Amino acid sequence: MGAHAGLTVERITQAAAALADEVGIEKVTISALARSFGVKDASFYSHVKGLREIRIRVAILASEEMNECIGSAIAGRSGGEALTAFADAYRHYALRHPGRYAATQLRLDPSEFAGTEVFARSVELTYAVMRYYELDEPDLTDAARLLRSTFHGFISIEAAGGFNHPRGVEGSWHRIVSSLHQLLEQWPRTADTEKA
Known about the structure:
Number of helices: 9
CATH architecture of the domain at 59-190: Orthogonal Bundle
CATH class of the domain at 59-190: Mainly Alpha
């Protein structure tokens, strides 16, 4: 029956990603996916171990897609222009694909994504933008965490319709990203702070 439905790991992953965008990653179940293919739940277990594997595969797929969007956006740019391109691509993807984006926020064990370079690529893209600001560790990690926290927080509130104010969301977003650029240019170096 599974062969007639054309079940493959890739098709299951794509269907799970599409369903996640519709209903949320937490509502993606084996039963819901099986129904979408017109097969019984048991048919899935010859292709995937279970729901956890499907969610991991969606997280990897979404991270690959995000990396592609961000990589294209920042190519040939640096400084504030690169930061803006990175931020806009990140936000655009997250708002367009809410379920997939939520999957990228799942806590994964390194063994669960062994054999893929996708998460290393995410770090690489972030550091490519950060290189302009010439930050050393631990400042580089702290600054990268600030960016991720700001982007994720803003997008989460925006997606939930939480910005109920006459001020346009776009104006706030661009002002925040511009302010992050200014902050990064004047980042207080840990080494300098420790000397003082």
